[in-house]
Amino acid sequence: MADIRRYISWETGLSSEKHEHQVTLYTKTGCHLCENAYEVLMGVREDRPFVFETIDITTDEILMEIYGELIPVVLIDGEERFRYRVNEKRLRRELSK
User: For 84, left (φ over 0), alpha (ψ -120 to 50), or beta?
Assistant: First the structure.
């Protein structure tokens, strides 16, 4: 079976071992740092694809208590990786794992 997967991966150019990361951006309206983080994320996404979601913390009381003024917060595969600013080089490294 592994040989078939390897063949399909080779034929289609898809790796059966490739993992598409899930990236979540916690944000709220009017946050200029959130806009900057979004721009960095979308720029990196062009050559390092990932599943992306944005969550407005003002729609959830618990998220407001947790993150309040700490935004933007970026999670990769459910783990917090950035607060306030997104470092592009570090983001690329994280998404290469």
Answer: left
From 11, 26, 9, 4, select the one nearest 75 (Cα to Cα).
26
Residue with tokens 């407001």: 64
Q: Contact, 26 vs 53, CB < 8 A?
A: no
Residue 7 in this model has a pLDDT that exceeds 90: no
pLDDT tens digit sequence for 10-25: 444 444 445 699 999 9
Domain that holds residue 88: 18-96
Domain count, the chain: 1
The Cα-based distances of 82 to 13, 27, 63, 64, 85 in angstroms read 32, 12, 16, 17, 7
